[in-house]
Amino acid sequence: MRRILLICLVLALWRSATGQAQEATGEWWTPGFHARIRIEPCDKALCGRIVWAWDDRPAGIADGAPLTGQIVISAMLPQGDSLWSGGRLYNPEDGRAYVGTMRLKGPNNLELRGCVLIFCKTQVWRRVEPDVCRPQLTANRQTYKQMVAVE
User: For 52, 73, 79, 93, which has the most beta carbons within 10 A of its beta carbon?
Assistant: First the structure.
């Protein structure tokens, strides 16, 4: 009987540890729907990269490289119930990486917090709903301006 309880406990702990990482995996919208980030497991951590951007080369980006494909979340390790930390959050706008944390705020909201020294910034990302407001991969700010000008 004790052996069965021990096996059940080990399975439950393993399942919660792996299930936790799966909760934050998937695709997320940044504020304003400017970019779509895919979060996936990388070793024992979570990482995220830009898979779609409203404007792939906006003015003022630090390195001038296309946004699509850039890694913006790296090495986020699970720390407890719906919390990941110890990783880096990269901001393509200023070209800096920040010490970061991620916390699920319900099934469809992910709070990210990046800090340098005592200065921190928080964003809340929304989980992508595949059947709602799906952007076309060719859409960008210029075609949006053209569509608005026609109306």
Answer: 73
